Amino acid sequence: MNGSLDVPGTSISRHNSPVEGLPLPRSKAHSRSQTPSPIGIGGLIEKKTGNLALKGRKEATTAVLNVTLAEMIRAHLPALSRFPRAWNLLYSIDQHGISLHTLYDKCENQAHLKTNSGLVTKVGALVVIKDSEDAIFGAYIGDGLRKSMGKGYYGSGESFLWRYVNGNFQVFKWTGKNDYVALCEPEYLSFGGGDGVYGLYLNDTLFDGSSARCPTFDNDPLCSLGEKKGRAVSFECVGLEVWGLGP
């Protein structure tokens, strides 16, 4: 099985689609290599980052992501993306209603933000899904979440898929085998692809989804074990949030 390559900041060109609280968990980052990360800017940043706050979710909103799981995901973000001490809720099924159109509108409004210095910076997006069997999984997209507008896939090598299932946390980094990172159309949103499958797929009802091992991330199916359609495992989405990971 080939090794996973973590290539932060690697630019990827666009291509068309190849196909028509939680208990404190055992953190286990998925990697074909167990080599420790070298000490560098990431190590320095870890010393400067404080506790993480999740903002924008109303008290009455049913939560999908909590701080414990968010901190685990944060540890795998690109070094500079670990700086923000607050993540902002961009979209929640429970808070904003079941609408893919609304999801895109909420996320695209936050795709770029001005910093205090006046510079415009990208805002990464974290997609968090809960299925009917209580598995929690999703995708981190460093370029944010936006409609592809018929231009095909977008995204960079700092993106990854992840899952928290049965007490185990895993991250699936970009392999470099293709650049099918994110494809977000009016009828569906998807992450990872190739060989006729999607790593993670959710249709416009925001209820029916599937996950399969894909070349982009060499991931295991992210969801709970369910009905298989070919190589993909189907799931029912019962919770969905998108978080902005900007400054």
TrEMBL record:
Q: Which GO terms describe its cellular component?
A: mitochondrion; nucleus
Q: Which SMART domains match?
A: TLDc
Q: Which domain of life is it from?
A: Eukaryota
UniProt KW Mitochondrion keyword: yes
Q: Name one GO biological process term.
A: response to oxidative stress
Region: Disordered; residue ranges are 1-43
Q: Where is the TLDc domain?
A: 63-241
Cellular compartment(s): Mitochondrion
The family database entries (InterPro entries) matched by this protein are listed as:
TLDc_dom
Q: Does the keyword Isomerase apply?
A: no
Mention any Pfam family matching this sequence.
TLD
Its protein name is Oxidation resistance protein 1
Q: Which organism is it from?
A: Rhodocollybia butyracea
Q: Which UniProt keywords apply?
A: Mitochondrion
Similarity comment: family membership:
Belongs to the OXR1 family.
**Major localization class:** mitochondrion
